[in-house]
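Annual report, structural modelling task.

Input specification for the iron/sulfur cluster complex:
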Amino acid sequence: MSVVVKVEEKLFQNRYKVDSGRPHISIIEEDKCRNACQSHACTVCCPAGCWTMEGNGNVTVISDGCLECGTCRIICDEHHNVSWEYPRGGYGILFKFG
Amino acid sequence: MVEKFDVIVVGAGPSGNSAALRLAQAGLSVLQLERGETSGSKNVQGAILYADALEKLIPDFREDAPLERHIIEQRMWVLDDDSYIGSHYRSDAFNKQPYNRYTMIRSQFDKWFSERVQKAGALVICETTVTNLLLDNQRVIGVQTDRQGGEIYADAVILADGVNSLLAKKAGFHPELQPKDVALAVKEIHFLPQELIEQRFNVKDDEGVVIEMVGKITKGMMGTGFLYTNRESVTIGVGCMLSDFKKQNTTPYALLEQMKAHPAIQPLIQGGEMKEYTAHLIPEGGYNAMPDLYGDGWMIVGDAGMFVNAVHREGSNLAMTTGMHAADTLIELRKEGKEFSKTNLKRYQSKLDESFVMKDLKKYKDMPDVFHTNPQFFNDYPEMLSKAARTMLTVDGVDKKTKEKEIRHDFRRRRSLFGLVGDAFKLWRAFE
Ligand SMILES: Cc1cc2nc3c(=O)[nH]c(=O)nc-3n(C[C@H](O)[C@H](O)[C@H](O)COP(=O)(O)OP(=O)(O)OC[C@H]3O[C@@H](n4cnc5c(N)ncnc54)[C@H](O)[C@@H]3O)c2cc1C
Ligand code: SF4
Ligand code: SF4
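The model returned the following structure:
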């Protein structure tokens, strides 16, 4: 049984204070994602669907819906290709319940 | 003027709040820094609160802590695709005050805890991310924050910054976490009328039910699912090791969605209004994966130090207890007029060794390895169990002896007799 899920619908319930123009997660070397990485695990395992494999083979990250879990950083253990910081104080996800 | 405190605590989760409370109560000057809007706004838990650890810090917590329900029934389910087999333990002994376990909602609980910390006299500053530790050789002398002129000094820094533990990593105190040592959990909260929850779970007043689940819901990955009752909501979630998510190429929210659709689970959450979706890591590497816990001018407490007992789903209580021991170490040293050097902070380790924290973590130290190397516990066994139960319970004219033979045959076909015995032995050794 496979269920189609739109993560956007889930994230829509959450509260965020986005730090516009200051992403706290970025790719260190885009070329590595495209040519060296086999798994592209970030694009599958991010619980907020922030990582996308584009049609042209590029991997991109948009961290607006990020839940600040750390998965993408740790799961990229062969290439260590994720630059990952917490957002500035007060910004990012604001859990209502947690 | 250079700002200087006796102690800086980074993070206002249960570990940081416990440490800060204790230190402030003893009269030390404490600055606590939290990146969230408030204490709790970045934090995620199931959430079961174990009274014992909190009671040691705040004996009267039951008077005003935001508690949801006290647990009177624990269900353990092993699920396959369309069934579950399991045990329920319910006892009226759990209805006697003082209660031992409660459900709670972390953002509310942490906020309450933080108010206690502030009342005790600690200076708590939120919306401030600590970006680096200030080092003088290998000695921690303060922190750098993301505020202007953000350098602040202290005799000791307690790192209560949670599972990602970025600060200790940047300072070179320990390496990056490995995917095999952390679980990723995703979770939702569904609101339902209070009476409906009480009907569905067969409870009244503040009574609550906990359901812990293993089996096909994790698609063979090492992990568990859970469903907890709050007063007017239920939380439902599933967590698996990151290494397994990666290996099996699985999307966490799809896994959660499939779990929610399971015929044994769906009726329990039906009609609820989902109001938040969260994700968080849990450090489950256990004793063998623990980092160094102290050094010159610094100590690590809570999730940042891998203080989680995954077998028993305990984390917040270990966080509180380690926070308390770290604070007590500093309080004692200060009284004795001793500095917060690595040699003197060894006392923190001794306190932990004597407490349930290290005893439990040592006891289960082989557990993660056993499960990592024996995936049958998460895929074959749930199916085998379920099939066995179904075979025995279906009345279809086949005699029971033949049925037993069929079950035995099925078990052996899927896992040699040698394998079955070996598994039992491995589990026993790890639990022993
Ligand atoms: C889904 C899930 C279910 C769980 N269920 C249970 C359960 O039922 N019972 C149980 O006992 N445990 C449970 N746990 C474990 C428990 O939540 C943790 O063990 C506990 O929260 C650890 O507390 P902590 O204070 O060490 O870390 P955290 O609670 O993570 O707190 C760390 C704090 O530090 C702050 N911070 C981090 N970095 C910085 C920085 N650089 N600057 C400023 N602030 C910073 C964060 O914002 C956060 O507030 C569960 C965990 C999860 C994810
Ligand atoms: S796993 Fe790492 S290297 Fe691979 S695509 Fe993702 S960020 Fe790039
Ligand atoms: S930290 Fe977690 S939620 Fe944020 S982008 Fe990385 S994997 Fe996704």
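Chain A has one domain: 7-93.
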